[in-house]
Amino acid sequence: MTAQPNGPKLQVADLTVGFGDTIVQHDVSFEVATGSIFAIMGGSGCGKSTLLKAMIGLVRPSAGTIRVGAEDYWAASDERRAEIGRGFGVLFQSGALWSSMSAAENVALPLRMLTGLQEESIAALVAVKLALVGLGGAGDVMPAELSGGMRKRAGLARALALDPEILFFDEPSAGLDPVMSRRLDDLIRELRDGFGTTVVLVSHELPSLFGICDDGVFLDAETKTAIAHGAPGTLRDECAHPTVRAFMNREGPPGDQARAGARHGHS
Amino acid sequence: MAPEGRGWIVRPAGADAVIALSGDWVGRVSGVEAGASRRILETGARGLAFDVEGLGRWDSGLIAFLTSLRDAARQSDVAFDEASLPESARRLIDLASSQAAAHSRPPRSPLLDCVGLWAIAVAAETMEVAALIGDTCLRGGTALRGRAAMRGIDLIDCMSDAGAGALPIVLLVNFLVGSILAFVGAVQLRRFGADAYVASLVGIAVVREMAAIMTAIIMAGRTGGSYAANIATMQGNEEIDALQAVGIPVFDYLILPRVLALTGMMPILYLYGCAAGIFGGFVVAVAMLDLSPLSFIDETRLAISGSQFGLGLAKSLCFGALIAIVGCRVGLHAGRSATGVGRAATTAVVVGIVGVIALDAVFAVCANALDI
User: Would the CB atoms of A195 and B59 count as touching at under 8 Å?
Assistant: First the structure.
């Protein structure tokens, strides 16, 4: 398959993100290996999504660098950044389908706007992408008529439109039932295995974190920085940090040892 | 479209054929070849196998080629041996065919059905608008006695937006309309030596028609559209569902303050509009047509009577209610998407303006019959 240069696909170094004077996360560093599924973990409101927005070019970080391959993403010119961004596919939390277009048109738009392909080719590529996410027969349906799970799948098909090298997911399981969310996890893994895509996902869903992620970083809301690195499963079993332990084992807050112990005993 | 390095050759192997794939199969660069599977099957092979020695980089372009080839092979009973394909490509073509969720649209209904459905929809719409007007009258009465589930602060907010907020533009537009009328009228009247009648022309036109109509058109664009967009967005965010679920009556809480505010503010705006229009005429008449200020004022006082103001006030009340009801009603029935909100705003403005002018025609006929 695609010959990838060795080394990390994404390198985040000493990154600080925030809005105005508010710092959301500071001095976050991590590397995402090519072809891996990388998790950005942390509790609600810790700045996971803001970090993701910095990585996909929506929020300019106040300090630090993000390297895509060998290139500094935010130091590049606007045009160059847009060009690098074409190698990204993003699935937003609720799909973010363009509501005036059918599912197939949603997938076709990036191909139509950003490539010089002919209609037949576009139609064939759209069809295969919808089939890959299990929406083979639903191309003509408008987003408003799709269920939550189908909307995510259609959003994923659109994220795949340009065969991205890196796929970003913002809370892929949010709003899905456990079965649906499991199917989406499997789909993410199948696509990674098939295309060799690097996947970065923001999540706090423990089952999907343990199920599919190879590596990750844990962001803390209190200290506003990364407090642990490693695969979610490893963090659960080995990390000594009380906040990470509590999160990964679904315990009460770290200060609340007695209750946490009791819960742990039950499970 | 020159396929960059992408290529396939069919090599016969007995009754079967081996398809040798070569080069880079990158979909966004080289696209997907139309009719490739047909041409491969036309070779008459009874089975297909692959040789991927020369295959370079690939992505969904290759998957699209392989899935369409496999589907075509299945249809014409040709064996499809995918064993020699890369493992990851095999997984993907399995994935692409395993879970095709069938979801088809209902077929288009014939013309007769469309006409029938349209007629039913029009009837239902008429009923609903009538119900909305009735509701407004009933609940409005209750509200005036202070017994509706409406927050005073909402009413005040709506009134300040529809009243004070709109005043500058209402003044400006009416001033300009008044001065334009004075100009146009003076040029014609001067030919008969009737310059002095400019004042009565401006006065009557502004008070009877222009102030009410212009103010209503401004408010239809400014406030009617904003009501529709606002309520449609709330609908999309499920805010209205939340109101209903909590048990707060949507009509009292959302619609009543808007309708009351706009209906209440329109007559006031109308009066301001009259003043601005007459002042516009006055400025043009005095500054450019050499009429004396006093004679203009006298002439205006003679020309306009209380009944004309009454007509204008009645009109502006009706226009205000019409615009607010249309805006709210369109907003409540908008689709729950970005397009829906845009369409709702457009519909509210268009229906509001057309409605205002149609209603004005009705008023003109009535006024004529009543000799006002």
Answer: yes
CB contact under 8 A, A190 and B28: no
Query: What pLDDT, in 10s, does the model give residues B111-167?
Result: 888 999 999 999 988 888 888 888 888 887 887 777 777 788 888 999 999 999 999
Nearest CA-CA distance, residue A132 and chain B, Å: 4
Residue A104 lies in a domain: no
Tell whether A6 is covered by a domain: yes
Tell me whether residue A70 is in a domain: yes
Q: Please, what's the b/e burial string for A212-251 (b: 16 or more CB within 10 A of its CB; e: otherwise)? A: bbbbbbbbbeeebbbbbebbbeebbeebeeebbbbbbeeb
Indicate whether A152 belongs to any domain: no
On chain A, the residues whose CB falls within 8 A of the CB of B89 are 1, 194
Mean pLDDT score, A221-237: 85
- What is this structure's pTM? 0.70
For B91, the closest of A117, A134, A190 (CB atoms) is A190
Q: Model confidence over A133-192: pLDDT tens digits?
A: 888 888 888 888 888 888 888 888 898 888 888 999 988 887 788 888 888 888 888 888
Mutate to test the interface with B, among A128, A184, A195 (most CBs of B within 10 A): A128
Choose among B27, B105, B338: nearest Cβ to A140: B105
Contacts of B95 in chain A (CB under 8 A): 131-132, 187, 190-191, 194
With a cut of 70, say whether residue B59 has pLDDT above it: yes
* CB-CB under 8 Å, B98 with A134: yes
A266 pLDDT more than 80: no
Provide the 10 A C-beta neighbour count for residue B126. Answer: 10
Kind plus residue range of the DSSP H or E element containing B306: helix B306-332
Nearest CB partner across the interface for B32, out of A124, A141, A190: A124
Residue to substitute from A112, A153, A156, A163, interface B, most B β-carbons within 10 A:
A163
Mutate to test the interface with B, among A83, A118, A132, A165 (most CBs of B within 10 A): A132
d(CA B13, CA B243): 71
Beta pairing class for B79-80 and B47-58: parallel
DSSP structure string for chain A: ---PPSSEEEEEEEEEEEETTEEEEEEEEEEEETT-EEEEEE-TTSSHHHHHHHHTTSS--SEEEEEETTEETTTS-HHHHHHHHTTEEEE-TT----TTS-HHHHHHHHHHHH----HHHHHHHHHHHHHHTT-TT-TT--GGGS-HHHHHHHHHHHHTTT--SEEEEESTTTT--HHHHHHHHHHHHHHHHHH--EEEEE---HHHHHHH-SEEEEEETTTTEEEEES-HHHHHHH---HHHHHHHTT-S-TT-HHHHHHHHHH-
Q: Note the Cα B329 to chain centre separation in Å.
A: 13
Domain count, chain A: 1
Range of the domain at A53: 1-34+42-87+204-260
Is residue A216 within 8 A of residue A40, CB to CB? The reply is yes
CATH code of the domain covering residue A25: 3.40.50.300
Q: CA geometry: angle at A190 spanning A188 and A191, to 5°?
A: 65
